[in-house]
Design a protein that fits this description.
Length: 106
């Protein structure tokens, strides 16, 4: 989409703890990712799920738009993950979001 910027977002867990123990955890994350890409009109270009962090290359209208998308997705995943695993822990450190292939990154 014209006028949109590509961003590389890195989502890390607190103290490097494992996020994805099972495929159920991975599917939960991917379902939430899809829900929030639809809600925010984000296009995912690539993603990588590691045990304790995630890389997502996506587009957004602005840095604030990308930040809101990632923040809401993290909160929603934390809520459902804690419910699934009977936990109440804070889960993520604030995401790092870097513009890629745009005037901002040059």
């Amino acid at each position: 989409m014209e006028g949109r910027i590509h961003y590389h977002s890195i989502i890390k867990s607190i103290r490097g703890r494992v996020i994805f123990y099972t495929d159920v955890d991975r599917l939960l994350f991917l379902n939430i990712l899809r829900r929030f890409t639809d809600k925010h009109s984000i296009t995912i270009i690539e993603y990588v799920l590691m045990d304790n962090h995630v890389h997502i290359l996506h587009d957004a209208q602005s840095y604030d738009h990308a930040l809101l998308f990632i923040k809401e997705m993290q909160q929603n995943f934390s809520f459902w993950y804690n419910r699934l695993h009977a936990s109440h822990d804070k889960f993520f450190v604030p995401a790092k979001i870097y513009p890629k292939y745009s005037e901002e990154s040059i």
